[in-house]
Amino acid sequence: VSAHLNKAGTLVNLEKYEEAIGAYKDYLEVDDQNPMIYTYMGECYEKIGDYDKAIEQYLKAIELDAKFHEAWYGIGVSYLYMKKLSDSLYYLNKAIHLDKDNPDYWFTLGNVQTNMGALSDAVRAYSQVESLDPHDFEAWVSHAELEFKRSGPVKAIEVLKKAYTHNSDIPAIIYSLSAYYFLTGEEELCLRFFDKGLRLNQNERQMAFNICRRLKYNYKIISLIGKAKNKKP
């Protein structure tokens, strides 16, 4: 039995998901009462884009254990990929009801709510992630984007300043701060954060330009990029 699981795990790590499904099926011939195996199979089907079969496996897991929150979450994710947002929302809320302290569940919920236009609900979901795992920088960035859409750059900066206390070396946080400071006219802070971002990872600077396209054509920003490129490793 363990040999089948080890083989499946190795195949998943190699991204050979169809072969991994076969290994999990071999395991089920010995033990077909383990909800985790059906969940693993669901994740594999999800990886190859067969969401209907993924949901089928997750439902089998739930039939065995109605409190198996990983399977409820898996269905929610599959429906998200299928763009069936109302269905996704239902299953994600089920997963969260069973495991309220899982930041991944809250983050995905926030993404669904954002796509549905329920921005206030999404802000609450991302805030929950920040509380559970303040080092989850993606939640902070997503939260800031929503505040920018709702209230403007000042609110976005408030969010990211809190994020920075936990993630002072994360380029996504730093470049985002740079862009929002540019939008508020605080050039010195904009340049300071952009320069720090370049020192950490030059390749991620597009994030700042995605927030504020004008920043890309600012001559001081262009100068900073030129200096960073000319520096010796």
CATH topology heading of the largest domain? Serine Threonine Protein Phosphatase 5, Tetratricopeptide repeat
Mean pLDDT score, rounded? 96
Strand content: under 5%
Terminal Cα span: 50 Å
Discrete helix count: 14
CATH superfamily caption of the largest domain = Tetratricopeptide repeat domain
Helical percent range? over 70%
| Largest sheet, strands/sense/barrel | none
What number of domains?
A: 2
What is the total tally of β strands?
Answer: 0
InterPro entries: TPR-like_helical_dom_sf, TPR_rpt
Task: Supply database-style keywords.
Serine Threonine Protein Phosphatase 5, Tetratricopeptide repeat, 77% helix, TPR-like_helical_dom_sf, elongated, 233 residues, TPR_rpt, mainly alpha, 14 helices
Description:
The chain is mainly alpha-helical. The chain folds into 2 domains: 117 residues, Alpha Horseshoe (Serine Threonine Protein Phosphatase 5, Tetratricopeptide repeat); 100 residues, Tetratricopeptide repeat domain (Serine Threonine Protein Phosphatase 5, Tetratricopeptide repeat, Alpha Horseshoe). Helix content is 77%, strand content 0%. It has 14 helices and no strands. α3 runs parallel beside α5, α10 packs antiparallel against α11 and α11 packs antiparallel against α12. The chain is elongated, with a radius of gyration of 22 Å. The mean pLDDT is 96. Pfam families: TPR_11, TPR_8.
